[in-house]
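--- STAGE predict ---
source: upstream dedup step, 1 unique chain passed
mode: sequence only
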Amino acid sequence: MSGSDGLPENANYTERYARHLVLKEIGGAGQQKLSLARVLVIGAGGLGASLLAYLAAAGVGSISLIDDDVVSLSNLQRQVLFNHDDIGLPKAVCAARFLSKLNPDCKVTPIEARLTADNAKALIDAHDVIADGCDNFATRFLVNDACYFAAKPLVSAAVGRFDGQLTTFKAYMKDTNGTPYPCYRSLVPDSMRATETDDCSTTGIIGALTGVMGSLQALEVIKEITGAGDSLAGRLMIYDGLAATARVVGLPWDPSNPLNGNSPTISDLSSHS
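--- STAGE serialize ---
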């Protein structure tokens, strides 16, 4: 049963989300939007750990998480959804179990698979906001392109050894000047695929950094759902953990990019097959 504001007439519900309900930027209307939202999270690794936990805790009604990996001992340094008993088990299943205990209000759907050109469209079409926490260029390009064609906001984060970056892509929209918003291909050229040789297993990463960036990513997803604050579309946040600094820079649209540039050459997801 719901009250006049659309929220459940439930004392536990009111208490659980009390700190949201008193925020004028969220309030009852925003919390209702969160409870109705469907979010797809790509990757249940370092970024996904904090991202998923804070989305579930915030009361996002439906979360799907896709990951085809299993938990390893080296993951536990930063992937705080898992524990020693989870080693060797599917990350998606273990994460879903953790989130369901954290917030039974949240419907969590684990998907033990890799995002591909064959399943990307159906998955992204079924959700309202997409959050990308994957660790490879190929998947990032695929997610970017699929979100563009589906006209769905994409909140994307990436991390290095002690640094991270975060932005929101809405390349299917235009800014107040009529200029298209940038997509991932405006930030990273396709030629970067050939440079993908290192990962955190060889370069290292400070575990707490993924928590910082995953939490910031969750905040941007919540903002996209509720309409609170200013979107990061067209802007890039850069965080330097060693210097303890963060800055936001403009991310311009690249008119030569092959997705939403002046002469696009990508018309569907077949280029990823």
